[in-house]
Amino acid sequence: MNIGKIHITGSESNPFHTLSYQRIDESGRIEQANLPFIKVFVNYLPDGLDAIVACADLQGRWKDGSLIGCIVAEELEILSQMDELPAVEKTGIILCGDFYARENLDRRGGTGDVADVWRSFAKRFRWCIGVAGNHDIFSAMPDEKAFEKFKNEEGIHFLDASCIVKDQLKICGISGIIGNPRKVFRRTDVEFQKEMGNILQQSPDLLLLHDGPDFPEENLDGNQLIRESLISKNHLLLIRGHKHWDQLYIQFNEQIQVLNAHEKVLVLLKENI
User: What residues contact 216, with CB distance under 8 A and at least 6 apart?
Assistant: First the structure.
C-alpha cells in the first residue's frame, strides 16, 4: 500500500443513523424504506479533511415530496452540528449517480433532474464531487449551455472521463453506464473501456463510477468489462453504485478496493490508532 493512499480497514456492522423515506419496490409498489448511514474506516485522510461521505442510488422521496438526496444533505449537516460527525467544512461529498425518483412514485426507474440534490450538498460541505447515473439529468439538459452553467456553479465538481485534485487527492470519474450511446450518460463498451484506460493512466486515488466491476468470487453483481479494465497495478479505491451488494466493500485485487454505496450513506473516517 502506497503511503497517502486511502485504504479501507473496516466498517461498523450496524448503521449509526437511519432515515425513513418512500421508494418503489421491485414489484412496482410504494414502500417505506430506511436509508442506512454507516461508518467506514480508512487508514488515511489528508490534513484538513476529516470525513468523506459517499452515496448513490438514493431514488426516493421524503414525506414532503422532496428528493431524498436533498434531505440527506440536510440530515448530515444536523449530525455535524450535533458533533456526531465532523464539521461540514472538513467533510467532502462523493456522489455516484441516480438520485431521482418520479414525483408521484408511480413507477420505478424514472429519469429526471437531480441538480438540486447536488446543490444541496455543494452549498453545505467542503466540496461535492461526483458522476451521473443512467437515470440522472441536470437542469435543462440536453441544453448544453444550461448544463455547462450547472457544472460551473460554485462547489459543483462534475466528472465524466475527467479528474480533479482536491485536498491532495486525485479523484477521477466516468459518468453513466455501458449501453446505447443514443441515450443520456451511456457509452459503448469500446468507448467505456477506452476511457477507463485513459483514467487509470492518470493514477487516481479515488475512482468514481456509477456501475462498477462484478466480482464472481463472491457472486457480486456488476459489469464484466469494467472488471477486465481494472487489471492494473494502480493503488486506488473505487466507489460505485447501481447494483446491490450484500457487503459494503471488497478487496478486488492486491492494489484495488471497491466500495459499494448503492442505497446507502457511507461516512469514511480515519481509523483510531
Answer: none
135 vs 272, higher pLDDT: 135
Place of cell 485504504: 7
**CATH number reported for the structural domain that contains residue 230 in this entry:** 3.60.21.10
Domain with 170 in it: 8-270
Q: Is residue 89 part of a domain?
A: yes
Could you write out the three-class secondary structure of 63-114? Answer: CCCCEHHHHHHHHHHHHHHCCCCCCHHHEEEEECCCCCCCCCCCCCCCCEEC
Contact between 271 and 51 (Cβ < 8 Å)? no
pTM: 0.96
Query: Could you tell me if residue 242 is inside a domain?
Result: yes
pLDDT at residue 1, as a whole number:
40
CB burial readout 170-191, b (16+ within 10 A) else e:
ebbbbbbbbbeeeebbbbeeee
Number of domains in the chain: 1
What is the C-alpha end-to-end distance of the chain, expressed in Å? 17
152: closest CA among 172, 138, 136? 138
Residue with cell 479501507: 8
* Environment class of 14 (CB within 10 Å of its CB; exposed 0-12, middle 13-18, buried 19+): exposed
Any domain includes 188: yes
Cell of 225: 468489462
